[in-house]
């Protein structure tokens, strides 16, 4: 697996230093200071655990490890350039549209940064986002209504004929408004005393939440509202005593800001993979390849924050 600490700037700086045979000239070509490019090279060498270059008054020279890495680094840059060129060429023939399906947790947490990164790489591509429950998006994917879907891995019967590439793991949270009575003495068995916003039947987290309820001996909730709407969940929970059961990514911003509060329940049983879902018989377009790269960059940054 590729070490996610390696960024595009590491590869770009390394290749340019080799091409120019000089740290100073490489820095000038990349519009960087010499200390900045030296720092980037050192970061790469620390990640790889080996020296890539030797320095002398005559310039720089590749080590054996550097020679091996250079081969694949140049291939990576060439592949990226080919993808960008492909997007540009298609864009010249007509506006390109990439349609992406995103589950609510992904739409709230990952997609804003991924789209921002993608727009920087391919501003001429129109990106169309569709959110909704797992079954709806998978059906769209099978029928060609979206190019790819990002979301939770569904139950085996829903994933037939779908390729899945994992990006990260996510869990479910129970959240309330600040000052909710249950925060004074948290007890999962008491949640039935208040309205509960419960995952809808079509959602990927529904079976996981039901399993957690069974594990804690909790039966049918008398005041249950089934919804996958983030807008409804946020507004209703903030302005009532409701308890919202939802993927962590949907409410990460609100929890960080303090407008919603996490109940301290152990939800480890609900942890599951989030990833890219595609049709195995389809070849990714240049636009999709660039989008995948943008998503990878954002996921790597998310890992660093954790």
TrEMBL record:
<dbReference type="InterPro" id="IPR036388">
    <property type="entry name" value="WH-like_DNA-bd_sf"/>
</dbReference>
<dbReference type="InterPro" id="IPR012787">
    <property type="entry name" value="TF_PcaQ"/>
</dbReference>
<comment type="similarity">
    <text>Belongs to the LysR transcriptional regulatory family.</text>
</comment>
<keyword id="KW-0238">DNA-binding</keyword>
<dbReference type="InterPro" id="IPR036390">
    <property type="entry name" value="WH_DNA-bd_sf"/>
</dbReference>
<feature type="domain" description="HTH lysR-type">
    <location>
        <begin position="6"/>
        <end position="63"/>
    </location>
</feature>
<keyword id="KW-0805">Transcription regulation</keyword>
<dbReference type="Pfam" id="PF03466">
    <property type="entry name" value="LysR_substrate"/>
</dbReference>
<dbReference type="GO" id="GO:0003677">
    <property type="term" value="F:DNA binding"/>
</dbReference>
<dbReference type="InterPro" id="IPR005119">
    <property type="entry name" value="LysR_subst-bd"/>
</dbReference>
<dbReference type="GO" id="GO:0019619">
    <property type="term" value="P:3,4-dihydroxybenzoate catabolic process"/>
</dbReference>
<dbReference type="InterPro" id="IPR050950">
    <property type="entry name" value="HTH-type_LysR_regulators"/>
</dbReference>
<dbReference type="GO" id="GO:0045893">
    <property type="term" value="P:positive regulation of DNA-templated transcription"/>
</dbReference>
<keyword id="KW-0804">Transcription</keyword>
<dbReference type="Pfam" id="PF00126">
    <property type="entry name" value="HTH_1"/>
</dbReference>
<dbReference type="GO" id="GO:0003700">
    <property type="term" value="F:DNA-binding transcription factor activity"/>
</dbReference>
<dbReference type="GO" id="GO:0005829">
    <property type="term" value="C:cytosol"/>
</dbReference>
<dbReference type="InterPro" id="IPR000847">
    <property type="entry name" value="LysR_HTH_N"/>
</dbReference>
<protein>
    <submittedName>
        <fullName>Pca operon transcriptional activator PcaQ</fullName>
    </submittedName>
</protein>
């Amino acid at each position: 697996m590729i070490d996610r600490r390696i960024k595009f700037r590491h590869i770009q700086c390394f290749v340019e230093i080799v091409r120019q045979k000089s740290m100073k000239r490489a820095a000038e070509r990349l519009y960087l200071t010499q200390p900045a490019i030296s720092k980037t090279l050192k970061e790469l060498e620390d990640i790889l655990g080996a020296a890539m270059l030797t320095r002398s008054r005559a310039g720089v020279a590749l080590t054996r490890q550097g020679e091996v890495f250079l081969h694949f680094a140049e291939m990576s840059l060439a592949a990226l350039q080919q993808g960008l060129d492909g997007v540009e060429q298609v864009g010249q023939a007509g506006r390109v549209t990439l349609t992406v399906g995103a589950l609510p947790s992904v739409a709230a947490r990952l997609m804003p940064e991924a789209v921002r990164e993608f727009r920087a790489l391919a501003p001429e591509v129109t990106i169309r986002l569709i959110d909704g429950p797992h079954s709806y998006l998978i059906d769209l994917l099978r029928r060609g209504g979206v190019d790819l879907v990002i979301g939770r891995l569904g139950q085996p019967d829903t994933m037939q004929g779908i390729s899945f590439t994992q990006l990260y793991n996510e869990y479910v949270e129970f959240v309330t408004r600040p000052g909710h009575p249950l925060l004074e003495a948290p007890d999962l068995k008491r949640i039935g005393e208040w309205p509960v916003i419960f995952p809808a039947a079509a959602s990927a987290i529904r079976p996981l939440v039901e399993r957690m309820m069974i594990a804690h001996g909790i039966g049918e909730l008398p005041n249950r509202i089934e919804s996958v709407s983030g807008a409804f969940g946020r507004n209703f929970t903030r302005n009532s005593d409701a308890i919202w059961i939802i993927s962590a990514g949907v409410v990460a911003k609100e929890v960080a800001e303090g407008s919603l509060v996490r109940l301290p329940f152990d939800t480890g049983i609900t942890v599951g993979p989030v990833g890219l879902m595609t049709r195995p018989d389809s070849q990714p377009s240049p636009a999709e390849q660039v989008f995948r790269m943008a998503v990878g960059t954002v996921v790597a940054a998310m890992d660093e924050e954790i």
